[in-house]
């Protein structure tokens, strides 16, 4: 899939949208997609670049006149303030507001570049990020799926002129992604078609932001934080919505109970900050407040910290706090929770979606200094409470905000729009010569029921396997079965060019007997422990293990800390323990690279929950009618029949096309 993204700014420039988009782009690239990002060109930056495998285009080629940037900034700041605080300053029709023409000019820079790129190379999806590029739809042909993510709040009592302006333009997109059900309801009430709305929480890199053993003393020393202090961390730059003042005003009371407490702020200037004098005044006010309260030694500003080393500071802190006046979502809360921190946050925007009061932290009202102080003191003085909240934070992230969940939801939306816009995106309209490989799952795909633990030829429909072979297209098998089972299968039925076994951990090439394994030290240890448990019906592969799902809790308990270093993959009534970040999707990408087959030119067929990762790869995805619900949402086509009958349906359609 080729995806074009566009946003005001992008990594390495710090900010919530930039971080979200970096995580999204990296994962899309990792899954084999081609990704392009268009953003404003900061002074001195190249027009074209590549970052983390993403093709970068910066606009415009020549520096923007300062007066245009000032006007652009004034208009978007008016939108930003009205959406966050309902200042009632957006009182006139949009085209009469100061800076509107400059806002239009900047959108034109983006639009012309996107149009140029689309003329050179067609995109499967164009995905615009945030209101600053609201007019981008004017430059994208109607046949191309077009999505916009709305990153800031959308409130009920927004001014009528702004509401009418936004809704008129938002309705031009195929889908609008919001970060909160509350924002969806407000936008729908304002006139946005509900069919256009989707809910996806912003993406935090939970592979990077996680609980880690770090040298806290060394990390604190690096940032000028006393080694024995109690650290209250706030990752947020100074702007009109920030909660710096609330936290600073809470410090005198906190220090009376916790004398070694330190308030640490991480964040630098955004592109908007550099254009707006208002934000510089806010910054001066914050520093003056610190001075007035004699807190110079108790409040620390680190400035920007490289994204890749930020997790070490989260893991060296005692609490993460975000007391914003309003907040689109609050990605720093997600990051803090993923690193095992209790949270103290205000009851605004996306913060209450993440923070459950008295479970993984405390929620406070805007401006409630006493409750803010008391909440922070309670956590800092009660280690048992902190530990309980820490565990709950990690659990909430695992269940709701894990990066894989966000990536899956984005691909589901992309697929939904592609299908709606292109009625010819079906097998019967494919060019058969473009199909270079057919990838299938095994159990309940090329068999009608789970096969026996030991290989038995009677479990397979020989006629079906022969029909697949007669297609004359390379056949690839992807299965959770052990390599030992797979070798017997391939010896009996010599039809597969490659088999990805053990849920991606083993790649086998039958013609040469070449075998590639993906393993880790932790997986080896886990396999040894699970083997020693002597549980009934344990299946031991070369790398992974598989047990009945009722033993999952027991296995996790026996593995102890190692359980966090491996992956538990559900497949119907079984639970597989696999190396972390190893799955069918990765195994197939490696196999296709080895075979020099373009993933885009494959047909992928599956039915189970452990097939989701291979459905995140490029290619034409077909879910059998007996498939997991999530798989069906990711599929380009769903068969009418289940299992082997569904595969036969695919074979018939392929035989009917030229």
Helices and strands, with pairings:
Blueprint: E1 2-6, H1 16-30, E2 34-40, E3 48-51, E4 54-59, H2 66-85, H3 100-120, E5 125-129, E6 146-149, H4 160-170, E7 175-178, H5 181-190, E8 197-199, H6 216-222, E9 230-235, H7 244-257, E10 261-266, H8 271-275, H9 277-292, E11 299-303, H10 310-314, E12 319-322, H11 331-338, E13 343-346, H12 351-354, E14 361-364, H13 369-381, H14 383-401, H15 403-421, E15 437-440, H16 462-469, E16 474-478, H17 483-492, E17 498-501, E18 506-509, E19 514-517, H18 521-533, E20 539-540, E21 545-548, H19 552-559, E22 566-571, E23 574-579, H20 584-595, E24 602-606, H21 612-615, E25 620-623, H22 629-634, E26 637-638, H23 643-656
Parallel strand pairs: 1-2, 1-5, 2-4, 5-6, 6-7, 7-8, 9-10, 9-12, 10-11, 12-13, 13-14, 15-16, 15-24, 16-17, 24-25, 25-26
Antiparallel strand pairs: 3-4, 17-18, 18-19, 20-21, 21-23, 22-23
